[in-house]
Amino acid sequence: YLKYKATYFGEDKVAREITLDDFNDEDMELLMAGLYHIQKETDRSGRVVVYLMTDVFARCKIENLKRHSLLGEELKETPEMVEKLLEEFDQIVRQVKTPFYEMAVIQNREHVEDPSFRLRFLRCNMHNVHLSVRQMMDYLKHKATYFGEDKVARGITLDDFNDEDMELVMSGLYHIQKERDRSGRAVVYVMNDVFGRCKLENLIHVAYYVWNNILIPMHNVQMKGICFVYYDMTKQGEKYAMPGLNFMRTLTKVLMSFPLRYSAIHLCLNPERGDLALTNSLFSYTMKQVSRYVGVRTRLQYGSDMEVQYALRSHGVPEKGFPVDADGNIRKDIMNEWFYRHKEEIEAKKQHRKVLATHASLHQPVEYSNLGHNAQESGLEPVVAATAGTDQIESETNRPPRKEGGINPSPQDVLLGRGWRVQNHEGNVRFRSFLEAYSDEYDTAARLRKRQIAGQLVNLLRGRGVRFLKQTDASEWIESSFEDAEKKVGQLFRTLRKQSRT
């Protein structure tokens, strides 16, 4: 409050009241434009009623508007800021790494060192590095607890769900509104009618998938957060299956470990349903478990379905996508629409991978020119993602047999070492040509991103049957370690950069 007061009225006014004498002509014009209306009569509960008219929103300056109210937050970043944050993040991780983090590193180092993965936590915590690292450690711990330690360093898919998980997904527990709110944020509903009747484990499984596979990957969600709506669907006279305190405490801790920022929370309750006193106690207890950032952005909306929907609309939630009508009935025409859209996207990606696998040669030496074209057109990550799933088959099929006493290098292998014979080996020549497509992206990337690019390319080529070989003291060729192959990629990128300058 004090920060914004100093910003929009001046630091000399931060410790005194603001009067009409502090307004300029544009402020007074906006004040008299009908932007606000304070109703003389109070509502049924004795509360003051305030109206905000949006018709003048687009016609006034943001500075004048912010003198009257504050709009939604959106993170601002620069490449230099991101690189500095990631470097600090990496330093702190080395100091506070937990057994679950070490487990993830052993299983898949690239997953937990991926800058895009770490940026999710940084953005969730408004670039607070210490909070971000702590949240990532909690996230890995909960993932190992509820999905198994073998899945701590990989994505969770629908194949990991059991029948109860899928039944909960399709129960109407969640609704992701197609339309954004007034601040451009995604709107997510949780319907409480099945909330207290499902197992904690199933609820966490579904929450993890919806949050981490659908919401968090959206760049808009990372930068702006979400508008979260808890909607009371208990029918009049129906006994609400209230979850216990331990249930809510555990669920809250797990949800707060997900790298998702709650920019606005609306708890929509009907005072005529269930036990309101018990509900209030439960929410009061739950709010004490969340961060202060979340707590101050939470609003309680009491009333009938029509009243709470009016309240949501006044807070910028578009009524077109409400999952409940004014009489409190689920709108079956849009129920689970968000999930069907998500499944269509999954199927489209599967079909794309099948097409790539059909055209890939499983029995011919890999052609480097077919693995990637212009890096700016295809992008490194799509190329790597598209080849996932075929790596094991191709690596077993394409790799030449091991020779007793060492490996006999094939024309597609990359040799590590120096000398004319190594540099002019057919596999090395193809390898240099292949890397040229990604040289611009590598040269402009931050330091941590460069390491990620090198690692992805090594995995891509290994999956296609390419081996990185080094020579022993006995002049025998053996497969190099992943780290040595990664260094080789970085070394060649630097060589290509020097050659381009000359």
Tell me about this structure.
It is built from 23 helices and ten strands. It has helices spanning 2-9, 25-31, 62-68, 79-96, 99-113, 115-124, 129-147, 163-169, 200-215, 219-224, 245-257, 276-287, 292-295, 305-314, 337-359, 375-378, 380-387, 391-398, 420-423, 426-436, 439-444, 447-463, 482-501; strands at residues 36-38, 50-52, 174-176, 186-191, 226-231, 262-269, 298-302, 414-415, 468-471, 477-479. The strands form three sheets. It has a five-stranded mixed beta sheet with strand order 3-4-5-6-7. It has a three-stranded mixed beta sheet with strand order 8-9-10. Strand 9 (468-471) and strand 10 (477-479) form a beta hairpin.
Write the layout of secondary structure elements.
Blueprint: H1 2-9, H2 25-31, E1 36-38, E2 50-52, H3 62-68, H4 79-96, H5 99-113, H6 115-124, H7 129-147, H8 163-169, E3 174-176, E4 186-191, H9 200-215, H10 219-224, E5 226-231, H11 245-257, E6 262-269, H12 276-287, H13 292-295, E7 298-302, H14 305-314, H15 337-359, H16 375-378, H17 380-387, H18 391-398, E8 414-415, H19 420-423, H20 426-436, H21 439-444, H22 447-463, E9 468-471, E10 477-479, H23 482-501
Parallel strand pairs: 4-5, 5-6, 6-7, 8-9
Antiparallel strand pairs: 1-2, 3-4, 9-10
Helix pairs in contact: 4-6, 4-7, 6-7, 8-9, 9-11, 17-22, 22-23
Features:
502 residues, alpha/beta, five-stranded mixed sheet, three-stranded mixed sheet, 23 helices, globular
What radius of gyration results from the CA coordinates?
Answer: 28 Å
Bulk shape: globular
- Characterize the main sheet: 5 strands, mixed
Give the proportion of residues in helices. Answer: 40-55%
Distance between the termini: 56 Å
Q: Which structural category do the helix and sheet elements fall into?
A: alpha/beta
The overall pLDDT, averaged over residues, is 79
Question: What's the arrangement of strands in the largest beta sheet?
Answer: 3-4-5-6-7
Poorly predicted regions are 66-71, 361-367, 369-404
Strand content: 5-15%
Q: Quickly count the helices.
A: 23
Counting DSSP E segments of at least 2 residues, the number of strands comes to 10
